[in-house]
Amino acid sequence: MKLTLQRPMFWTDKLDETIDFWVNTLGFTLGEKNEDWGWASLYRDEVHLMLARPNEHTPFEKPVFTGSIYFNTDDVDSLWQLVKDKAKVCYAPENFDWEMREFGIYDNNGYLLQFGQSLKD
User: Fold this and answer.
1) What residues contact 76, with CB distance under 8 A and at least 6 apart?
2) Mean pLDDT per 10-residue run, the chain (121 residues)?
3) Is 60 part of a structural domain of the chain?
4) How many Å apart are CA 47 and CA 29, to the nearest integer?
5) Which residues span the domain enclosing 7?
6) Helix, coil or strand: residue 111
7) Same-domain pairing of 80 and 118
8) Where residue 100 sits, what CATH number does that domain have?
9) Positive or negative: CA dihedral 61, 43, 29, 36
């Protein structure tokens, strides 16, 4: 038995605004959207994710997530140039002792998104 794909689901009460952020700021493609379900699926390269409005059975005041979503990329500095003026910045690109060059931004819901490139490459 193997796992074949990780596809996180982010809850949001701003579905259209969140789709816009992921598509127009980070270059994702909207694969599918269902208004009745309050759900969308997006992808870029090998990365897939889902967005959803919480259902009536789930208490939801605002997005809450302890941690971050970490993406590996092959060109962290080019990606930084594309997003730095379109998103709230957590930290600008820097090199770390663990041999990664990384930066962090927040999406429109406040989720921390980190992007890193190996300095070994």
Assistant:
1) 93, 101, 102, 103, 115, 116, 117
2) 78 95 97 96 96 84 82 95 97 96 95 94 68
3) no
4) 10
5) 1-55
6) coil
7) yes
8) 3.10.180.10
9) negative
16 contacts: CB under 8 Å, gap ≥ 6: none
In this structure, are 25 and 50 located in the same domain? yes
User: Do 10 and 26 form a contact (C-beta atoms < 8 A)?
Assistant: no
pTM beyond 0.70: the answer is: yes
Give a yes or no: residue 62 inside a domain: no
C-alpha 3: how far from its chain's center? 21
Residue with tokens 């302890």: 66
Structure tokens at 57: 């059975």
Domain count, the chain: 2
Nearby residues of 12 by Cβ (< 8 Å), 6 or more positions away:
18, 51, 52, 53, 63, 109
User: Which of 105, 114, 110, 102 has its CA nearest to residue 85?
Assistant: 105
Residue 100 pLDDT: 95
